[in-house]
Amino acid sequence: MDEARSMSRLRWRCRRGMKELDMLLERFLERGYAELSEAEKGDFDALLARQDDELWAWFYQGREPDDAALERLVNRIRENFVL
How many domains, in total, are found in the chain? Predict the structure, then answer.
């Protein structure tokens, strides 16, 4: 899949049922995604497969994912992109 198509697909997947999550994930995609390793990009894909209530709890309620790779990514996003 070419880069532009891949980013378009990711941008679409960043659209969630909650405006705050939409804004957070899209901001990360635009400003932080390019810095990820290939493995971390896979983790971001796995993150986007999770339910909105889980994402909300991780980003806005301080809960931690049960997966170590997702925990590292969530913490990175929290530290740099949560307003």
Answer: 1
